């Protein structure tokens, strides 16, 4: 990059060294294939250039020697010279891929947070609901939001007049079915399809598999509360239900429960209007934990391959990010909203303090599963306890047990996308 600031003489000497390096390479790789005449010609022309370079001859002399050497290299160079543009591009891409893979494997690995188990410290995919069409971003704004926040727009209009009804499962969770979609219109993506009923018509919206559709429903039909999981439960419990007989795709007639949203629309009016902002994407430091142990309070990324409580449920091996809450030998207990470690309130991270105080959007720790009420837990010698900062809505060690030490990958280092308030050093 500093070649622009070199004198013409220095640039010519640098150029001469490059040509000599190429001629030496051809000599060593192809000397057993060349005729005596070609070999002698190569050595003679390269020798002249080398001698004048050592004597610090003027640039014009070096240029004359290079022009004499180049035809010889062209004649005897084989695959080394001349080289086509596509060969150089392939070599460049292969080397770049090797460097990137090496960095990813041993130094810094990019990681995308899909769910909101660490919210509000880190965001998974989050919804931004627009109350009216006037609140929706214009076309230019959508392009900017797509680039800056990875925001995808969803606009669902009513196919008929009537109240908006939401089919739900027996546990009160909105009914869904698996489907396939495309990410960036190209990459295959697992999705969930949700049906809503308006009047006597069905309207379907498909979203990424890990997106919290309930959060969007809460913000649409019961806005204004920060504790979205509890607000959704309360809203569902307060609604009226009705049961109907519906015909399935295979011709069966089955009862289905619907929740009444209380929202009535006319044909063509908006039923749902929201954007999905992509989850935080960060670099993970894969080096540090080879030399030092992770500390309580640190965020850490780990593989799930050997967590029996997860794999037994049919989950696919993947990477999770949680906060380390317990080391080998620690005794943990949750007395909502506080997490206790070895008899005292846990320390080591701001998220611990915020949850204990239920500060802002932190709602405190929930005692369930492994850390259920009245059952302190002692961590084994070969594992860690991993908890999500969003204890109300986190699938973590309380449900599936310890993280084996050997499966720790690294620590979150830097949130590089999207360009929200989380951009910067990881917490």
UniProtKB/TrEMBL annotation:
GO biological process: signal peptide processing
Record keywords, A-Z: Hydrolase, Protease
Cellular component GO terms held in the UniProt record: membrane
Main location: membrane
Catalytic residues of the enzyme: 117, 322
Stated family: Belongs to the peptidase S26 family.
Membrane topology note: Single-pass type II membrane protein
Taxonomic path: Bacteria, Pseudomonadati, Verrucomicrobiota, Opitutia, Opitutales
Documented EC number(s): 3.4.21.89
SUPFAM superfamilies per the UniProt record, alphabetical: LexA/Signal peptidase (SSF51306)
Ranges for domain Peptidase S26: 276-416
Protein name, UniProt field: Signal peptidase I
GO molecular function, one term: signal peptidase activity
Annotated organism of origin: Termitidicoccus mucosus
Cellular compartment(s): Membrane
Reaction(s) catalysed by this chain's protein: Cleavage of hydrophobic, N-terminal signal or leader sequences from secreted and periplasmic proteins
